[in-house]
Design goal:
The structure is a homodimer of 311-residue chains. Chain A is built from 7 helices and 19 strands. Chain A has 2 domains: 183 residues, 3-Layer(bba) Sandwich (FAD/NAD(P)-binding domain); 121 residues, FAD/NAD(P)-binding domain. In chain A, helix 1 runs parallel beside helix 2, helix 1 packs parallel to helix 7 and helix 5 runs parallel beside helix 6. The relative contact order of chain A is 0.19. By secondary structure, chain A is of the alpha/beta class. Chains A and B meet through helix 1, helix 2, helix 5 and helix 7 of A and helix 1, helix 2, helix 5 and helix 7 of B.
Chain lengths: 311, 311
């Protein structure tokens, strides 16, 4: 029987592991084996330079995740490179199913993150993080985008926000919107439409990403006329949403309409007592490495307090 | 006119500076000049080894704060080593008063932290962080406390929590309680009283901290009989509360009963639109470097969004 099982191995999971160890909870972490199609360590492993994690002026995404893992191991956390298939939170101890194994735990921290949706167009793989990104707030300030033409795909609030964010860095920003209207709030649409650096292309879809070492152009199509054209783009930002990695929970904790785990604001408590959630799996607003790490720490402290109350 | 002024220079302030720079808000930070009696950088500068900041396996408190400052400067933040005396949030732009200077800002992040209360007994200065600490969650797992006698001063919930936390590491824990009752909740009192590793000494006050290179003993007094005695203590934890550094705000943002800034849970928004709060100045629950940094990041993103809405 474990005191604490941590599911997920991004910044939230590893911050939880460090604090859980310090609270003598001897955590067991399932870091996943290409869970949700991403390597252990999560979304940061798909990033090249991280310049906004306090306090590394610049560090590679994979290198940062290696440091996290190393510190968790140094702390005594046990890490298994396996993916959790399902859970049973209906009775305590909780059950965590991993292949043929069943692990029991007094408490669980879910920090399985979210995965940015991709388009799957030709060139996407090649130019991922070489011009293509799913997070303008994370990557927008990189030098390669300064005074360069930028393309943002999407028509929701996040797409508008990313487009507005990129007007601070790019020479101009083109938004590709599939329909003749946006899902974004009226206020956000107004801000985008009133910004002289932003051009909205309606009925327009991405077809291909092109370039040499880095992205140079995108091919687009008008989905009414089927007319294709090329536009210059040193940056291509996907803002078509994220998928929170909560399918394995089978609705045993309360989720919001988009599938994110609901937590009591200001805490990491879920709808199930003894189950805590940290990181992007419960946050579609901030979604940064350091905010995830902060909630990971909170989850470990919340778990420690809760376990203490059960004694 | 500044877009953003950041008041305070702990993890929250510097994380805010990094993210604010990346949002092109060109932040101006007042890091303070021994504000609230603590050096710029805040409470971490009074700590020796930090082993729970992700992802440094071990780093000195002062060294960590130097790295924070370095990254903020690298990002282009302007840092002034001056203490903010007062603010005027009644009209926009907000005014920030620093000696004879008045600075105007469209938005403000308050991250002035909190200061642990001290007893002021002989030996306290000498053994601070050499056995004496104000945070068991931060320092309790250090090797010097393993299987050693521990003393905790205080009778509130935090004192009980610190005592219980230290039972995981120390050989025994003695709580010094000034009166014949505790302020702590019934449930916490029960947990402390039922823990065989904890001894509660009622009507007892700390008189002096003694030792050689590190703390070895504390002198205590029974405040009814005036009888003094010595007890072994390799660790001495103060849990007599913190003072949030909010006096200079003169109640212009809503505070809770203990003087902490109230924020909308899950955000850093204060009662004044355009004024955001991050770090320990608004958090008396988690109070860790990484949770502070997380809320600092949130504050910068909240400020960016809010400023965008005002355009």
């Amino acid at each position: 029987m474990e005191k604490l099982i941590i599911i997920g191995s991004g910044p939230a999971g590893h911050a939880a592991a460090i604090y859980a160890w310090r609270a003598d909870l001897k955590p067991l972490m399932f870091e996943g084996f290409y869970a949700a199609g991403v390597a252990a360590g999560g979304q940061l492993t798909t990033t090249t330079d991280v310049e906004n994690y306090p306090w590394y002026v610049s560090i590679g995404g994979i290198e940062l995740m290696e440091k996290m893992r190393e510190q968790s191991l140094h702390c005594g956390a046990r890490i298994e490179t396996k993916t959790v298939d399902k859970v049973d939170f209906s009775t305590r101890p909780f059950k965590v199913f991993v292949g043929d194994e069943v692990h029991e735990a007094q408490s669980v921290i879910v920090s399985t993150g979210a995965t940015a949706k991709r388009m799957g167009v030709p060139g996407e793989e090649k130019f991922w993080q070489k011009g293509i990104s799913a997070c303008a707030v994370c990557d927008g300030a990189l030098p390669i985008f300064r005074d360069q033409p930028i393309v943002v795909v999407g028509g929701g609030d996040v797409a508008c926000e990313e487009a507005l964010h990129m007007t601070k860095f790019g020479s101009r920003v083109t938004m590709l919107v599939r329909r003749d209207e946006m899902r974004a709030s009226k206020a956000m649409q107004e801000r985008v439409k009133n910004n002289q650096k932003i051009t909205i292309m309606w009925h327009t879809e991405l077809v291909e990403a092109l370039g040499e070492d880095t992205l140079q152009q995108v091919k687009i199509v008008n989905n009414q006329t089927q007319e294709e054209s090329m536009i210059e783009a040193k940056g291509l930002f996907y803002a078509i949403g994220h998928t929170p990695n909560t399918a394995f929970l089978e609705n045993q904790v309360e989720l919001d309409a988009s599938g994110y785990i609901k937590t009591q604001p200001g805490t990491t408590k879920t709808s199930v007592e003894g189950v805590f959630a940290a990181g992007d799996v419960q946050d579609h607003v901030y979604r940064q490495a350091v905010t995830s790490a902060g909630t990971g720490c909170m989850a470990a402290l919340d778990a420690e307090r809760w376990l203490g109350e059960q004694e």
